[in-house]
Amino acid sequence: MTAARLVARCVRGLETVVAAEILQSDGVTVTRLGHREVHFRAGASGWRAASTADDVFLLAGACPDIGPGREGLGALAELAAAVDALGVVRLRERYTGGGALTGVEVSASFLGRRRFNRYDVEDAVGPVLARRLGVGYHSRRSGAVPAATGGGWRLAMDGVRASLMLRVGERPLHRRAYKGITLPGSLHPPVAAAMARLAGVQAGDTVLDPCCGAGTLLIEAYLQQPGSHLYGFDLSPAAVRAARRNAAGAPAADTDRLLIGDGSPPPVGWPGGGVRSAVPISVEQADAGRLPVPGGVADRVLCNPPWGAQVGAGGTLAGDPSAWWRELRRVLAPGGTAVLLLPGGGDIATGIGHGFVPEHVQRIRLSGAQPYIVRFAAPGR
Hints:
27% of the residues lie in helices and 26% in strands. The protein has helices spanning 15-22, 73-82, 85-96, 118-133, 189-199, 216-224, 237-248, 316-319, 322-331, 345-353; strands at residues 4-9, 29-34, 37-42, 47-48, 55-64, 103-104, 106-110, 136-137, 153-157, 161-167, 206-209, 229-234, 259-260, 281-285, 298-303, 332-342, 357-363, 372-377. A hairpin with an 8-residue loop joins β17 and β18 (372-377). α2 runs parallel beside α4 (118-133) and α5 (189-199) crosses α6 (216-224). It comes from Sphaerisporangium aureirubrum.
């Protein structure tokens, strides 16, 4: 199969994590890291679905960023007229087996202040693509929901260049099929996947999430390492129900079907693909400050603690936030690892004050905030 130019879009701060995951596929070359983007090439053997990416696109073409003025919109229309739109659509069909596009919709994004809005960009590019493909164009300006077209175009400008792309899958990669229930504070699945990768979960490890919410971290950990033992706890009965429901709807891990473009059915983790089965995750209601488990039981702890950004602390933690850190120290085995999403540097200092040693600190941008993904080593390592 002809090599393709691809772009993985991701949460700001995860670019290197996404690149490392993509490079696990044979024959893949990363060609550029940008703002929330990883550009890469894949050949005949395809590539593994990137769990840490928000989405993956085929790159149709690029031109210099048009700058802040509206007068540059014509250059974007020229870009749409110059690319091999039909060739990109056909390549998408060959890679994923998806049906032909029956329409065009475009999503635009750009960095910096401009004298135009995203709809101006979309309406400059979309009609040109639609005419070239002989289909209709749906403008997003009115807010009306488009008819299903089997794909979506994207125009992204980062201050240096404008990239025109076509989504590989039928829907964004971050929209996991298993996530039937979302709660306030639910973790973005690619961020959860990045945290699980950073934890280095091994077969046979006991993995614990003291504040599991809708279960995203544990499910992503399972998809990476199905041989692990996964336990979640949450004070909220609604969260326990959500985590159990989501785990029951997650795809079975099947490492033989992760390649895209090798002629096999859509892979596990790719929207719409994979065999579904109940994931072996135990979820129970419990106070994160008093977990019903023996000391030193957890090889890995993965957690997005409730420090009040979207979900307030309850139970023991409401009156004594430091109880969370004491309990983490109690349940984590000597030599164990905790990977946490923390809202600020002061929280990292608190962890250090309780004897944990930070081994990796990575700042990301998520929902307008800039939290830290931190990997701590257990005291005594």
